[in-house]
């Protein structure tokens, strides 16, 4: 068998058909009709009134933070263990991320640590649902109400997931998605902001498009970006969205298959299958090496790579990022669980195009490494 990539998307629905419609009609830019249709359908799927499609999930976070008016002197509470997009969206505005550690079991931010981090400068809580299970939203929403904080929900890995029966992407003031090829639905690159607040939605549209004014074109009152989303991306997105339920089911199948074949292997901490608020949707199939395994995640991913298996290590903590250390942020801070995950966590091939045969090879090679170490 050839190399097994860490992720391969499935594009065998109506993607080609809708893309051909773009080309035949000449509508390829952000002005094309699929963009609005995709915004409407995606926001409806996650129970939001407005959707604003942007060029990627990072841009979605940046625009969301900007639209909430967060800036210099403000603090935003977020997990240290997350993708840097979350922190960058905050630091770019001049605001400061304030970090919390991870929960040992779900790997999401430990919501019990949030309250102690709230100060008079705190403006928002940024929740990030990681790897397939949602953050404990009840607690976050309760704190947000008590202290009058905004909630930004990064649902980049959560298309189709629910928390206590409510759609992820529907919580707090504003939520964001990514459509990178390793997400449950993809547009190559792409992202979306969703909200129920009309005014926020209007601001997002403005920041997405260079802060053009509606009536007087080329006269600008604020700084924005060109984060527009193209009709070509929307064409792919619409075709992908048609299959969201199927894709989530397939991811759960992949998760269940790996778990049933790796469960007996000693030393691996496998993803939690279910909490009292959700069933895992396995954004990717993530594994943490137990205390008795000497290998680091970097060594493990290297060894798997040598055996023809594509993997990735977990995110690296925000408080350990050289760029933030250089900026004088997070000096002397430590977060035990997050640091452990960043050193011991990795994920194995789990894209939607993955086959049973490929999974069997992954299990076999991983088992051999763990037993032989
Ligand atoms: C993928 C991802 C992003 C960033 O999305 P891009 O489209 O790659 O910019 C943000 N947050 C989380 C949690 C992600 O997994």
Task: Map the helices and strands.
Elements: H1 15-25, H2 33-45, E1 50-54, H3 57-67, E2 75-79, H4 84-91, E3 96-100, E4 122-128, H5 137-147, E5 150-154, E6 162-163, E7 166-167, E8 174-178, E9 191-195, H6 198-208, H7 231-241, H8 244-262, E10 268-269, E11 285-289, H9 297-306, E12 312-313, H10 322-326, H11 336-344, E13 345-348, H12 356-372
Parallel strand pairs: 2-3, 2-4, 4-5, 5-8
Antiparallel strand pairs: 1-9, 6-7, 8-9, 10-11, 11-13, 12-13
Bound molecules: pyridoxal-5'-phosphate.
What's the gist of this structure?
The chain has helices spanning 15-25, 33-45, 57-67, 84-91, 137-147, 198-208, 231-241, 244-262, 297-306, 322-326, 336-344, 356-372, and strands spanning 50-54, 75-79, 96-100, 122-128, 150-154, 162-163, 166-167, 174-178, 191-195, 268-269, 285-289, 312-313, 345-348.
Structure description:
With 373 residues, this protein is α/β, with parallel strands linked by helices. It folds into two domains: 15-241, Type I PLP-dependent aspartate aminotransferase-like (Major domain) (Aspartate Aminotransferase, domain 2), CATH 3.40.640; 244-372, Aspartate Aminotransferase, domain 1, CATH 3.90.1150.10. Helix content is 36%, strand content 14%. The protein has twelve helices and 13 strands. It has helices at residues 15-25, 33-45, 57-67, 84-91, 137-147, 198-208, 231-241, 244-262, 297-306, 322-326, 336-344, 356-372, and strands spanning 50-54, 75-79, 96-100, 122-128, 150-154, 162-163, 166-167, 174-178, 191-195, 268-269, 285-289, 312-313, 345-348. The strands form three sheets. A seven-stranded mixed β-sheet has the order 1-9-8-5-4-2-3, sandwiched between helices. α4 links the parallel β2 (75-79) and β3. α1 (15-25) runs antiparallel to α7 and α3 packs parallel to α4. It starts with 14 loop residues before the first helix and ends with a helix. Residues 56-58, 83, 85, 128, 154, 156-157, 178, 180, 191 line the site of pyridoxal-5'-phosphate.
């Amino acid at each position: 068998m050839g190399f097994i990539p860490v992720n391969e998307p499935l594009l065998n629905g109506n993607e080609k058909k809708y893309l051909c419609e773009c080309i035949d009609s000449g509508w390829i830019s952000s002005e094309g009709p699929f963009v609005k249709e995709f915004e409407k359908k995606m926001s409806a799927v996650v129970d939001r009134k407005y959707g604003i499609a942007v060029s990627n999930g990072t841009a979605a976070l940046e625009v969301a933070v900007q639209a909430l008016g967060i800036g210099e002197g403000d603090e935003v509470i977020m997990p240290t263990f997350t993708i840097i997009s979350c922190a960058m969206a905050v630091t770019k505005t001049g605001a400061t991320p304030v970090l919390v550690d991870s929960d040992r079991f779900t790997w999401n931010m430990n919501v019990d640590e949030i309250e102690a981090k709230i100060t008079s400068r705190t403006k928002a809580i940024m929740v990030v649902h990681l790897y397939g299970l949602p953050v404990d939203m009840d607690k976050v929403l309760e704190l947000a109400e008590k202290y009058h904080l905004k909630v930004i929900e990064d649902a980049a890995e959560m298309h189709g997931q629910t928390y206590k029966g409510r759609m992820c992407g529907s919580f707090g003031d504003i939520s964001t998605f990514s459509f990178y090829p390793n997400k449950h639905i993809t547009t190559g690159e792409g992202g979306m902001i969703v909200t129920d607040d009309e005014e926020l939605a209007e601001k997002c549209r403005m920041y997405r498009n260079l802060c053009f004014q509606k009536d007087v074109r080329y006269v600008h009152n604020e700084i924005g970006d060109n984060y527009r989303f193209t009709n070509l991306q929307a064409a792919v997105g619409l075709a992908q969205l048609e299959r969201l339920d199927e894709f989530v089911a397939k991811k759960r199948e992949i998760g269940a298959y790996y778990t049933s074949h790796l469960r007996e292997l000693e030393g691996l901490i496998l993803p939690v299958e279910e909490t009292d608020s959700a069933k895992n949707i396995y954004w990717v199939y993530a594994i943490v090496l137990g205390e008795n395994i000497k290998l680091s995640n970097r060594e493990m991913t290297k060894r798997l790579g040598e055996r023809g298996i594509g993997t990735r290590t977990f995110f690296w903590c925000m408080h350990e990022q050289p760029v933030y250390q250089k900026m004088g942020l997070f000096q002397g801070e430590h977060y035990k669980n997050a640091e452990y995950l960043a050193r011991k966590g990795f994920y194995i091939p789990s894209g939607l195009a993955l086959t049973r045969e490929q999974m069997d090879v992954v299990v076999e090679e991983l088992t051999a490494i763990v037993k032989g170490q």
